[in-house]
Write the structure tokens for this entry.
Amino acid sequence: MKKKPAKLDVRSALDLESDRALRDLIRLRLALPPEKRLNVLRKKIGLRATAL
């Protein structure tokens, strides 16, 4: 018969996986160009400047 893993072990494994997934998401977002990774609407002012 297999022994059940302790709840603390399962919890710590889930926390580690969650942290890893969050780091992967941050890396993915940072790899995008700024206009795609910023989730805000920007308005052009003049030729070069933008504002929120």
